[in-house]
Structure prediction request, 168 residues.
Amino acid sequence: MPLISRQEIEATVKRLAAELNRDYRDKNPLLIGVLKGSFVFMADLARLLEFPVEIEFAILSSYGRGKETSGNVRVVHGLRTPVKGRDIIVIEDIIDSGLTVAHFLEYLRKRRPASLKLCALADKASRRRTEIAIDYLGFPVPDKFLVGYGLDWDEKFRNLPDICALEE
Ligand code: IMP
Ligand code: MG
Prediction:
Protein backbone atom coordinates (compact mmCIF):
# COMPACT_ATOMS: atom_id res chain seq x y z
CA MET A 1 0.00 0.00 0.00
CA PRO A 2 1.48 3.36 -0.93
CA LEU A 3 1.60 6.03 1.74
CA ILE A 4 0.67 8.66 -0.86
CA SER A 5 -0.93 7.47 -4.08
CA ARG A 6 -0.19 8.88 -7.53
CA GLN A 7 -3.73 10.35 -7.55
CA GLU A 8 -3.12 12.19 -4.29
CA ILE A 9 0.24 13.41 -5.58
CA GLU A 10 -1.35 14.66 -8.78
CA ALA A 11 -4.06 16.58 -6.92
CA THR A 12 -1.48 18.11 -4.60
CA VAL A 13 0.87 19.14 -7.41
CA LYS A 14 -2.13 20.83 -9.07
CA ARG A 15 -2.94 22.66 -5.86
CA LEU A 16 0.67 23.86 -5.51
CA ALA A 17 0.73 24.99 -9.15
CA ALA A 18 -2.47 26.97 -8.55
CA GLU A 19 -0.84 28.71 -5.57
CA LEU A 20 2.23 29.57 -7.66
CA ASN A 21 0.08 30.70 -10.60
CA ARG A 22 -1.70 33.08 -8.24
CA ASP A 23 1.50 34.47 -6.69
CA TYR A 24 3.74 34.70 -9.76
CA ARG A 25 1.18 35.76 -12.37
CA ASP A 26 3.18 38.74 -13.66
CA LYS A 27 6.65 37.49 -12.82
CA ASN A 28 9.38 35.50 -14.47
CA PRO A 29 10.87 33.41 -11.69
CA LEU A 30 13.80 31.04 -11.76
CA LEU A 31 12.88 27.57 -10.53
CA ILE A 32 15.81 25.77 -8.97
CA GLY A 33 15.38 22.05 -8.45
CA VAL A 34 17.60 20.32 -5.91
CA LEU A 35 18.86 17.14 -7.53
CA LYS A 36 18.32 14.38 -7.69
CA GLY A 37 15.16 13.95 -5.65
CA SER A 38 13.20 16.87 -7.10
CA PHE A 39 13.37 15.84 -10.75
CA VAL A 40 9.96 14.14 -10.98
CA PHE A 41 8.14 16.74 -8.90
CA MET A 42 9.78 19.59 -10.82
CA ALA A 43 8.79 18.09 -14.17
CA ASP A 44 5.14 17.70 -13.15
CA LEU A 45 4.91 21.05 -11.40
CA ALA A 46 6.65 23.08 -14.10
CA ARG A 47 4.23 21.88 -16.77
CA LEU A 48 1.28 23.32 -14.82
CA LEU A 49 2.75 26.80 -14.45
CA GLU A 50 1.12 29.52 -16.50
CA PHE A 51 3.80 32.21 -16.23
CA PRO A 52 7.20 32.29 -17.95
CA VAL A 53 9.74 30.30 -15.95
CA GLU A 54 13.38 29.42 -16.26
CA ILE A 55 14.65 26.12 -14.94
CA GLU A 56 17.90 25.41 -13.12
CA PHE A 57 19.22 22.54 -11.07
CA ALA A 58 21.66 22.40 -8.20
CA ILE A 59 23.41 19.41 -6.74
CA LEU A 60 24.03 19.44 -3.02
CA SER A 61 25.94 16.75 -1.22
CA SER A 62 25.03 15.77 2.30
CA TYR A 63 23.39 12.40 2.52
CA GLY A 64 25.95 10.05 1.11
CA ARG A 65 24.28 6.71 0.62
CA GLY A 66 22.70 6.28 4.04
CA LYS A 67 19.43 7.48 5.52
CA GLU A 68 20.74 10.32 7.70
CA THR A 69 22.00 13.69 6.64
CA SER A 70 25.59 14.34 7.66
CA GLY A 71 24.89 18.01 8.33
CA ASN A 72 27.94 18.61 6.21
CA VAL A 73 26.40 20.17 3.13
CA ARG A 74 28.21 21.27 0.00
CA VAL A 75 26.94 22.84 -3.22
CA VAL A 76 28.51 20.46 -5.72
CA HIS A 77 26.97 21.86 -8.85
CA GLY A 78 26.04 25.51 -8.57
CA LEU A 79 24.08 27.61 -11.00
CA ARG A 80 24.80 28.88 -14.47
CA THR A 81 22.02 31.48 -14.25
CA PRO A 82 22.67 34.60 -12.13
CA VAL A 83 20.44 34.81 -9.07
CA LYS A 84 20.90 38.51 -8.32
CA GLY A 85 17.64 40.43 -8.64
CA ARG A 86 15.65 37.33 -9.67
CA ASP A 87 12.57 35.83 -8.08
CA ILE A 88 13.78 32.39 -7.00
CA ILE A 89 11.68 29.35 -6.15
CA VAL A 90 13.63 26.43 -4.73
CA ILE A 91 12.00 23.08 -5.47
CA GLU A 92 12.74 20.27 -3.00
CA ASP A 93 11.43 16.75 -2.72
CA ILE A 94 11.40 16.47 1.06
CA ILE A 95 12.60 18.49 4.03
CA ASP A 96 13.91 16.25 6.79
CA SER A 97 16.45 17.75 9.24
CA GLY A 98 16.32 20.88 7.09
CA LEU A 99 20.11 21.21 7.09
CA THR A 100 20.52 20.67 3.35
CA VAL A 101 18.01 23.25 2.26
CA ALA A 102 19.03 25.72 4.99
CA HIS A 103 22.55 25.69 3.61
CA PHE A 104 21.33 26.14 0.05
CA LEU A 105 18.94 28.99 0.95
CA GLU A 106 21.85 30.76 2.65
CA TYR A 107 24.01 30.23 -0.45
CA LEU A 108 21.27 31.81 -2.58
CA ARG A 109 20.53 34.64 -0.16
CA LYS A 110 24.16 35.77 -0.38
CA ARG A 111 23.65 36.20 -4.12
CA ARG A 112 20.90 38.76 -3.49
CA PRO A 113 17.78 37.50 -5.21
CA ALA A 114 14.73 39.82 -5.41
CA SER A 115 12.76 37.14 -3.58
CA LEU A 116 13.43 33.61 -2.37
CA LYS A 117 10.72 31.02 -1.69
CA LEU A 118 10.76 27.34 -0.92
CA CYS A 119 8.39 24.79 -2.44
CA ALA A 120 8.64 21.25 -1.07
CA LEU A 121 6.58 18.21 -1.86
CA ALA A 122 6.90 16.65 1.60
CA ASP A 123 7.78 17.80 5.10
CA LYS A 124 9.03 15.50 7.86
CA ALA A 125 8.67 18.26 10.45
CA SER A 126 9.30 16.02 13.47
CA ARG A 127 12.92 15.57 12.34
CA ARG A 128 13.80 19.22 11.97
CA ARG A 129 17.16 20.39 13.35
CA THR A 130 16.95 23.97 12.09
CA GLU A 131 13.99 26.24 11.49
CA ILE A 132 12.78 26.29 7.88
CA ALA A 133 9.82 28.19 6.45
CA ILE A 134 8.21 26.18 3.66
CA ASP A 135 6.24 28.65 1.54
CA TYR A 136 4.54 26.05 -0.65
CA LEU A 137 4.10 22.62 0.92
CA GLY A 138 2.62 19.46 -0.54
CA PHE A 139 2.27 17.00 2.34
CA PRO A 140 3.27 16.77 5.97
CA VAL A 141 4.64 13.22 6.31
CA PRO A 142 5.42 10.95 9.27
CA ASP A 143 8.94 10.09 10.38
CA LYS A 144 9.41 7.16 8.01
CA PHE A 145 11.87 6.65 5.23
CA LEU A 146 10.03 7.31 1.98
CA VAL A 147 10.75 6.28 -1.58
CA GLY A 148 9.17 6.94 -4.96
CA TYR A 149 8.25 10.00 -7.02
CA GLY A 150 11.92 11.02 -7.06
CA LEU A 151 12.80 9.85 -3.55
CA ASP A 152 15.40 7.12 -3.34
CA TRP A 153 16.85 4.60 -1.01
CA ASP A 154 20.44 3.92 -2.05
CA GLU A 155 19.63 5.38 -5.50
CA LYS A 156 16.78 2.96 -6.05
CA PHE A 157 13.00 3.43 -6.33
CA ARG A 158 13.08 7.02 -7.62
CA ASN A 159 10.92 5.90 -10.54
CA LEU A 160 7.98 4.58 -8.49
CA PRO A 161 4.86 6.62 -9.33
CA ASP A 162 3.53 6.50 -5.74
CA ILE A 163 5.28 7.43 -2.50
CA CYS A 164 5.85 4.42 -0.25
CA ALA A 165 7.33 3.97 3.21
CA LEU A 166 10.30 1.63 3.28
CA GLU A 167 9.93 -1.32 5.65
CA GLU A 168 12.45 -1.16 8.47
P1 IMP B 1 17.81 17.08 5.28
O1 IMP B 1 19.05 17.88 5.08
O2 IMP B 1 17.91 16.16 6.45
O3 IMP B 1 16.55 17.93 5.34
O4 IMP B 1 17.70 16.09 4.05
C1 IMP B 1 17.13 16.50 2.90
C2 IMP B 1 17.36 15.54 1.77
O5 IMP B 1 17.51 14.20 2.19
C3 IMP B 1 16.12 15.54 0.90
O6 IMP B 1 16.19 16.55 -0.07
C4 IMP B 1 16.13 14.15 0.33
O7 IMP B 1 16.90 14.15 -0.85
C5 IMP B 1 16.78 13.32 1.38
N1 IMP B 1 15.75 12.64 2.21
C6 IMP B 1 15.25 13.03 3.39
N2 IMP B 1 14.31 12.19 3.84
C7 IMP B 1 14.18 11.26 2.88
C8 IMP B 1 13.32 10.11 2.73
O8 IMP B 1 12.48 9.76 3.56
N3 IMP B 1 13.50 9.39 1.58
C9 IMP B 1 14.42 9.72 0.64
N4 IMP B 1 15.21 10.79 0.73
C10 IMP B 1 15.11 11.55 1.84
MG1 MG C 1 16.83 16.22 -2.01
Summary: Residues 34, 37, 62-63, 69, 92-100, 145-147, 151-152 surround inosinic acid (ligand 1) (CB under 6 Å). The longest helix spans residues 6-23.
